[in-house]
Amino acid sequence: MSIQERNGKQIIDPTSDEPYQNFLDSIYRKQNEDPHRYGGRQVAGEFIRELFDILFAGFFSDLNFKDRTQVEDGISRFLLDAKKKLQPYLTGTNSSLDINQILSNFKKELPLLYDLIWKDAIAAYEGDPAAESVKEVILAYSGFYAIAVHRVAHVLHRLQIPIFPRMLSEYAHEKTGIDIHPGAKIGKSFFMDHGTGIVIGGTSEIADNVKIYQGVTLGALSVSKSLASVKRHPTIEENTIIYAGATILGGDTVIGRNSIIGGNTWLTHSVPPFSVVYQKNEVRVRNSKELDNVIDFSI
């Protein structure tokens, strides 16, 4: 590190310092270890926006298709652009998968994907008394947006695209505060009410017509890295409601169908169908002498 004079002022020039030069060399070397340019979450965001512009034309974009031929043209353009976005994740990870075959399979998945996303929107409308229309759900509900992105990420995850599905899920996480691993299997008509703080682990399995509230965690008990491929997260059967702040852990934990899991409960074991699980609150009436000892605080 040297001291130089510029415009009559002495300044410290860090670029002559050997550790700083090594730092510059390190950045250069790491960049050239992998020549591919991934684009980061910006590319993930563009991918989702471009797809949703088509799937929800008139909602997320001002597209105005005149006939189904124009819809097909829009999808073809999207897939062509998607090829450029996804290719680095295959070549950069030495994947043997063929990008054209992946996109062909993704195109075949679009009808089911579209149907599932619309069923989620309808489930949110029917499950929330405050929702005035399905249109409102699509335009305004963060829980709907998060599950819609997850549906897309899950398809790419099943098609074995490396890394990119996780980037999609993290893009939605950043936007909504809802963290769903792309590996999670989620049935139709899924509704996350309010949504903020929900965490759904990668080996979770959720059946049809499940509703969960903010702050719910479907997580894993602590396991070693060697068990990463083992089912570590719970199974939630159909028609179950899980209220705010509940934590359900473990790959062997099954919540039976038509169950209700109360707020702030903690479960590491299975419960049978039609169960009602709740946290028991203790209420104690203080006597007048205790009032002087009450902690008074403000935030």
Layout of helices and strands:
Elements: E1 2-6, E2 9-13, H1 18-33, H2 40-55, H3 68-91, H4 99-127, H5 134-140, H6 142-158, H7 164-176, E3 179-180, E4 185-186, E5 191-193, E6 199-200, E7 205-206, E8 211-213, E9 217-219, E10 235-236, E11 241-242, E12 247-249, E13 254-255, E14 260-261, E15 266-267, E16 276-277
Parallel strand pairs: 3-6, 4-7, 5-8, 6-9, 7-10, 8-11, 9-12, 10-13, 11-14, 12-15, 14-16
Antiparallel strand pairs: 1-2
Shape: globular
CATH class of the largest domain: Mainly Alpha
SS strand fraction:
5-15%
CATH level 3 topology of the largest domain? serine acetyltransferase, domain 1
Strand order of the biggest β-sheet: 3-6-9-12-15
If you average the pLDDT, what whole number results? 90
Could you name the ranges where pLDDT drops below 50 across 5 or more consecutive residues? Answer: none
The largest sheet, given as strand count, sense and whether it forms a barrel, is: 5 strands, parallel
* Fourth CATH level, the homologous superfamily of the largest domain: serine acetyltransferase, domain 1
Total separate domains: 2
**Broad structural category:** alpha/beta
- What is the rounded Rg? 25 Å
* Secondary-structure element series: EEHHHHHHHEEEEEEEEEEEEEE
Annotation field: number of helices: 7
Taking the alpha carbons of the first and last residues, their distance comes to 47 Å
